[in-house]
Amino acid sequence: AAAAAAAGRWETGSASSLESCASSPPEAEEGGDQDDLDEEGGLEEGCGELLWEGEERAAFGDLLDEYPVEELLLVTMAPFREKHLWFETQLDRIQIPWSRGHITLLVDRADLLESSVEKLLRATPPRKMRQWMRVGFAGETGVDVGGLEREFFSLAAQALLAPEAGLFLLTPGSAGYRIDPAGGGEFEGGCPVPGSGSVGFWSSEASLEKMEFAGRLLGKALLERQSLPALLTPSLLKHLLQAPLLLSADLAALDPELHRHLEWLLNQPAEVVDALDLDFTVTTAATSFYAMDHEAEGGAPSQKDRLPSFGGGAGGGGGGSGSGVELEGLGNPGQGGGKSGGEKSKLAAAKAAVPVVVYELVPGGASVPVTAANRLEYVRLLSQWHLGSGVAAPLSRLLEGFYTVVPPDLVTVFDYAELEFLLCGSQTVDVEDWRRHTDYHGDFARDGYGQPEEPNSSDDPEAGRGAAGGVQKLHPVCQWFWDAVEHELDEAERSLLFQFATGACRVPAQGFKALQRNDGKYQRFTLEPADPARMRVPGGRGAAAQAAAEAREGCLACHLPTSHTCFNRLDLPLYKSKKELVEALKLVVKMDVTGFSID
After folding, report:
1. Neighbouring C-beta atoms of residue 491, cutoff 10 Å
2. Which residue, 250, 219, 247, is CA-closest to 234?
3. Among the four 97, 308, 402, 553, which has the fewest Cβ within 10 Å?
4. Contact 581, 481 (CB under 8 A)
């Protein structure tokens, strides 16, 4: 199944597509649907297709970079390591040499998303997207040799995924981010802006541009070997890969509760289905409702309330309140609500004030009731809506931006889990791998310290693994550092320390050996003694401030490590004890680790 970068509409494709698996249209169907169910009466596996069309494919010209089918098949069947080596080779091939120009991205940290869209989308034509990129932040003196670019990718991804952006939605159970079906519109006070679009959602060109920017950001992250804090749902990753979508598995990952309710619907007797009063519509409420939901309930809105409702009431397109049949209505009959009558009334009033949009799953769907005879078709269409057709416009722009950087065929050799690993890197910090791929400079490399040795069975507590996997004797401060990272910091603190030291939010997919500068050259992590004249002192810079801080703390922990993210280097003061070092590291990971200056 191929994802259309411009059309963004579901079409009938191969025999495995959703349409070909579906039963006859609901208006004409007679009889039951049990023959169409699997042995357990659950959702069948099917897949949805978004097909390229000739004009759309031609619009990309030579950016598509067709690859021989035989080569792609061979690579697809290879182990991940071999796939990745092939992928790296192809990225090197399509990367435009530095001598032929580069992208200079000067963005405003205070308005990061809008300034990034302006620079990387509106001001950068597609033909330049495979050039190397240099990043600068307006009003800051930092010079990009890798660290600024890594921070930009991290901050831009966070800005795109932020709830206030109205672009993506975190799925239940934190399975990843999906495109928000109720996002992308122009709203004022919770109401769609008149004339901004026929439905209010994804009617804003500015929001669609941000989705195209998101696609370019994902593509540039792959091209420039950057990791992103952007865990996407399996179905969205499969769209990027042009991979088949499985109704049951992908919907369960996207929304486990909706999947459970649909399974329940398929196994109910006809009288129960008729009593639900469903029709072939799906109703969504403006994203701005979530803040009202939060205010009305006095707590955070549930993930269920952040998703479109299950369906609409027959003939009503969602009922008088516009919220349709809520998911609880199809759950365990024994489950009760958790709100008092007054709280429900207050929340209902808030919901009633928010406009909703009703989408018809079939032409005239508001007048087509869901029955035992057509429920399988309803379940498939509703699942298809959630998995892609409900966000066709923003999805097509996301894919357009992604394929502007990375040829579509190039990523098809991976499955969605492998692509997630390439985009996001490792979510955990392997301390042993970090230590193994570290260099030591200055006093940390003198008097026999920090020098790789042949593997041996030494039990010396001051011995650590060297770059070649052997054993090396470490300076006491370095040994304290690794002990603190491994035993004194939790996983979240280790990740923050890694970000502080390198500017990257995640460890590369290949591990610490793959740390690099922004010119593609590898740059190992380095520990170096801090210059005493440049050690940072909280509260002031002068000798008096330093003496006061030392007196206040009673130790040198007020001297903090300094990072040089462009070179993956961390300068450590020569602490007098492990306790001082741990206190300093704990303080560093609690600080804002963004922003740059020049020594």
Report:
1. 10
2. 250
3. 97
4. yes
Closest CA to 152 of 234, 216, 85: 216
- CA 564/CA 487 separation, integer angstroms: 24
Burial of 19 (0-12, 13-18, 19+ CB in 10 A): middle
Q: Collapsing DSSP states into helix, strand and coil, what is residue 329?
A: helix
Provide the pLDDT for residue 281: 93
pLDDT at 286: 58
Q: Does 554 have pLDDT greater than 80?
A: no
Q: Are strands 525-529 and 569-572 parallel, antiparallel or unpaired?
A: parallel
φ/ψ region of 138 (left if φ > 0, alpha if ψ in -120 to 50, else beta) reads beta
Sign of the C-alpha dihedral computed for residues 479, 482, 486 and 492 taken in this order: positive
What confidence category does residue 512 fall into, taking pLDDT thresholds of 50, 70 and 90? Answer: confident
pLDDT tens for residues 60-80?
A: 444 445 678 889 999 999 999
**Long-range contact set of residues 489-494: C-beta below 8 Å, sequence gap at least 24:** 489/585, 489/586, 489/589, 491/428, 491/429, 493/585, 493/586, 493/589, 494/429, 494/431
Distance CA(270)–CA(542), nearest Å, equals 81
Looking at residue 464, its amino acid is G
pLDDT at position 352 over 90: no
Distance CA 504, CA 481 (A): 20
Give the whole-angstrom CA distance, residue 28 versus residue 42: 23
User: pLDDT of 119-146, one tens digit each?
Assistant: 999 989 999 999 989 898 988 876 665 6
Question: Hey, is 462 helix, strand or coil?
Answer: coil
